[in-house]
Write a structure and sequence with these properties.
Number of helices: 11
Structural class: alpha/beta
Number of strands: 12
Distance between the termini: 36 Å
Oligomer: single chain
């Protein structure tokens, strides 16, 4: 078997295009021409000696080999960037204040802290797990440097759109009866108001003409998972960070209406972050993308280079 050494620049273009959902956008982000990006993708398939992409409607989708390549490409780039940061930023010092939604507390935070601490042992991190409105408020007040949050409609001057993630109806892992089929109000479980997803759930049911009742309310996501897992009612969330006692329900289950997507954003205190915050933001974005559902991470409906 021939030994292949993949080009990291090519892999970075590949991963960037998948994460942005467009290789034209990747060309712009990386400062390359679209023809140069096309040549890189051709080189990747030649090195892999197998098709990475397949036609899907008017765009591209990954082959099985392409999905495998994407996972390895992310890992290779992560190790490369970690090594570069450890060498060049070995004397990086200071502290940085990070905010995260509860959804990402277990799914992302340990990975982010571990990777950052290995490369920057002299930097102190202050992390806060909170809801979107509090995170946005703290960014505005200057008490957080960066925050990964669901977009709740607040207009902040320095925010980066990460992805649009599908909201899902969430029920108990072991299906049980939630009221009768004779018209009883659907029991809902939600965070205390104000809550974006609580509002989406009630307004979606109202538009569909379905009756509902608030069966359980909690100030924490942990309380929501306990109540849903116990069968007190349904909630809405995304596929990210679901514990074992709940499950995302298939579309149309129980006649439930379809839900919209929700934007995930990275808020920044300043337009230009200092080196400490900028490095943490880079690691945070990589970990967040890896935690996204497969359809989002692999660029469903990926557009070709223009």
């Amino acid at each position: 078997m021939r030994r292949v050494t993949f080009d990291l620049d090519v892999l970075r273009t590949f991963v960037t295009g998948m994460e942005l959902g467009s290789f034209a956008k990747a060309a712009e982000r990386l400062g390359r021409s679209t023809s140069a990006v096309s040549a890189q993708l051709k080189k990747l398939e030649e090195q892999a000696a197998t098709p990475i992409f397949r036609k899907s409607g008017r765009g591209l989708a990954l082959t099985e080999a392409g999905e495998t390549m994407l996972g390895y490409a992310r890992r290779l780039l992560e190790l490369n960037d970690e090594a570069a940061a450890a060498i060049h930023d070995v004397e990086l010092e200071g502290w940085v204040r990070l905010g995260l939604q509860e959804d990402f507390g277990e799914a992302v935070l340990p990975e982010v802290l571990g990777r950052f601490a290995r490369g920057h042992p002299k930097v102190r991190i202050e992390a806060r797990i909170a809801r979107s409105h509090e995170l946005a408020s703290r960014i505005t007040q200057g008490s957080l440097d960066i925050a990964l949050a669901w977009h709740n409609g607040a207009s902040l001057p320095y925010s980066l759109h990460v992805a649009d993630v599908q909201m899902r109806w969430i029920g108990p892992a072991k299906p049980i009866e939630l009221g009768s089929r004779g018209g009883d109000a659907l029991p809902l479980v939600a965070l205390e108001a104000p809550c974006l997803l609580r509002t989406v759930a009630t307004e979606t049911l109202d538009r569909a003409g379905l009756s509902w009742r608030m069966a359980f309310s909690s100030p924490s996501l942990g309380g929501i998972w306990a109540a849903v897992g116990a069968g007190l009612g349904l909630t809405i969330r995304t596929d990210i960070g679901l514990p074992a006692n709940v499950r995302a329900m298939a579309s149309g289950t129980l006649g439930l209406p379809a839900l919209p997507k929700m934007a995930l954003v990275l808020h920044q205190k300043d337009a230009e972050l200092d080196p400490v915050a900028a490095r943490l933001a880079e690691i945070l974005l990589q970990a967040a993308v890896e935690a996204l559902p497969e359809a989002v991470r692999t660029g469903e409906g990926l557009r070709e280079v223009a």
